[in-house]
Amino acid sequence: MMPADRLRVSKADDRYQVADESGPMRSFDTIVEAVRFVRDRGARLWLDWGRTIIGGQIAPQDFVATFLGSDVGRIQGERHGPGAGSWRWSIATHDKRWRGHGGQRGQANTKDEAVAELEQAFTKYIAETSHGTSSSGRSKRA
User: Fold this and answer.
1) What pLDDT digit, counting tens, does each position of 15-59 carry?
2) pTM of the predicted model, to two decimals?
3) What are all long-range contacts of 38-44, with beta carbons under 8 Å and residues at least 24 apart?
């Protein structure tokens, strides 16, 4: 079940669809409009999460966030030193569908907090894209 504070955005028929646990809620012409809808409901994007693989090896305590098939961020657990046990997160995307690299980063006490903070920051990052900045622009509907 999808919590109310996280909403999925997917591409469907050249539009962007927002869904909650009960199914589709609404669709939009642009990704920015869809993400603003998510933000305005007090929610965050539910990003897809997977393991970070470097040189064919799974990196320990290292996870990558993707959105619409593109890497958008990463969380890493601190294993050594004074920050051991905490988690770092960062937004990093070069996808041409929205404005360039975010660069936002932070640190959290737990993995779940790092996920939530990255998802919230990425939601804000896309929602604050000014009109005309996102190259995803309007959908190409006939």
Assistant:
1) 999 999 889 999 999 999 999 999 999 999 999 999 999 999 998
2) 0.85
3) 38/7, 38/9, 38/123, 38/127, 39/123, 39/124, 39/127, 41/7, 42/5, 43/4, 43/5, 43/6, 43/7, 43/123, 44/5, 44/6, 44/7, 44/116, 44/119, 44/120, 44/122, 44/123
